[in-house]
C-alpha cells in the first residue's frame, strides 16, 4: 500500500464519519418531523393547499438542489486533491438538501400548517437527504471520473469506499 500525504484519501474512519453524518442529518429531520406533532396544530387551520404544496415542494427542491451541487466544478488536479474536493462536495450537498426541510418546519409555524403536512414533507426530505449524501463506492467512482483528467489513476481513493 502506498504511503499518502496528508491530502491523501480519506481513511476508513473518516468514511465511517461521513456515513454517520449523513445518517444523523436524515434522522434529525425525522426527529424534527416527530416534534412537529407537539409543536404544530394537528388540524388544518392554515391554508391546506399551501401546506400540501410545501410538503411536496420541500423534497422536490431538496432533490433538485442536490443535483445542482453535482454540477459545481470543484478544482481537482491530482488524485490527492480528491479528498478535500469530496469533503467539500459532501458538506455543500448536505447543506443544500437539508435546507428545504428546515424551511418547511419554519413555514409550518409562519403559515400555521398542519403537523401532518409538515411531517410528511420532512420525512420525504429526509429520504432525499439520505439518498443524496450516503457515501458509496459507485459515487466515489463517479466523483473521481468526473473530477480527474482522463487516464488519472484514482483507485487508492475509490478503494476507501
Short description:
This protein has 161 residues and is an all-alpha fold. Helices cover 70% and strands 0% of the residues.
Q: Catalogue the unreliable spans.
A: 1-10
Largest sheet features: none
| Strand coverage percent | under 5%
Q: First CA to last CA: what distance? A: 16 Å
Overall morphology: elongated
* Category from helices, strands and their pairing: mainly alpha
Enumerate how many helices there are, as a single number: 6
Order of helices and strands: HHHHHH
Helix percentage range: over 70%
Determine Rg (CA atoms, Å): 19 Å
What is the average of the pLDDT values?
83
| Total beta-strand segments | 0
Explain what the structure shows.
- The chain has helices at 12-39, 48-69, 82-110, 115-133, 137-147, 155-158.
- 70% of the residues lie in helices and 0% in strands.
- It has 161 residues and is an all-alpha fold.
- Helix 2 runs antiparallel to helix 3 and helix 3 (82-110) runs antiparallel to helix 4.
Describe the secondary-structure layout.
Blueprint: H1 12-39, H2 48-69, H3 82-110, H4 115-133, H5 137-147, H6 155-158
Helix pairs in contact: 1-3, 1-4, 2-3, 2-4, 3-4
Keywords for this entry:
disordered N terminus; 161 residues; single chain; elongated; 6 helices; mainly alpha
Amino acid at each position: 500500500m502506498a504511503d499518502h500525504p496528508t491530502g491523501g484519501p480519506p481513511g476508513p474512519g473518516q468514511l465511517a464519519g461521513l456515513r454517520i453524518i449523513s445518517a444523523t442529518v436524515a434522522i434529525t429531520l425525522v426527529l424534527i418531523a416527530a416534534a412537529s406533532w407537539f409543536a404544530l396544530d394537528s388540524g388544518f387551520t392554515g391554508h391546506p393547499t399551501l401546506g400540501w404544496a410545501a410538503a411536496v415542494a420541500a423534497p422536490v427542491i431538496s432533490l433538485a438542489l442536490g443535483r445542482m451541487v453535482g454540477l459545481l466544478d470543484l478544482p481537482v488536479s491530482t488524485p490527492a486533491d480528491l479528498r478535500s474536493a469530496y469533503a467539500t462536495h459532501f458538506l455543500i450537498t448536505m447543506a443544500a438538501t437539508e435546507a428545504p426541510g428546515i424551511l418547511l418546519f419554519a413555514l409550518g409555524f409562519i403559515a400555521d400548517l398542519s403537523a401532518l403536512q409538515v411531517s410528511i414533507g420532512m420525512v420525504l426530505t429526509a429520504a432525499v437527504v439520505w439518498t443524496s449524501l450516503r457515501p458509496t463506492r459507485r459515487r466515489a467512482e463517479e466523483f473521481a471520473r468526473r473530477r480527474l483528467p482522463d487516464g488519472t489513476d484514482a483507485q487508492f481513493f475509490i478503494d476507501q469506499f
